[in-house]
Amino acid sequence: MNAWTAMILWGEATGNTEIRDRGIYLYTTEMHAI
């Protein structure tokens, strides 16, 4: 979970929406799997 949060924050900080959106997808997928 922390890795996906970091990915979201990294995408936000660099303005890279693809990385941000991928992090959001992976975070929510793992959250629902737990």
Walkthrough of the structure:
This protein has one domain (2-33). It has 34 residues and is mainly alpha-helical. The longest helix has 17 residues, at 17-33. The chain is elongated and about 30 Å long. Helices cover 88% and strands 0% of the residues. Helix 1 (2-14) runs antiparallel to helix 2 (17-33). The chain has helices spanning 2-14, 17-33.
Can you tag this structure with a few keywords?
single chain, 34 residues, 2 helices, 88% helix
Provide a compact summary of the structure.
With 34 residues, this protein is mainly alpha-helical.
User: How do the SSEs run, as a string of H and E?
Assistant: HH
**Total helical elements:** 2
Biggest β-sheet strands, sense, barrel: none
How much of the sequence lies in strands comes to under 5%
Shape: elongated
Q: Unreliable segments (pLDDT under 50, ≥5 consecutive)?
A: none
Radius of gyration: 9 Å
- In total, the number of domains comes to 1
The proportion of residues forming helix, as a percent range, comes to: over 70%
| Average pLDDT over all residues | 97
- Separation, N- and C-terminal Cα atoms: 10 Å
SSE topology:
Elements: H1 2-14, H2 17-33
Helix pairs in contact: 1-2
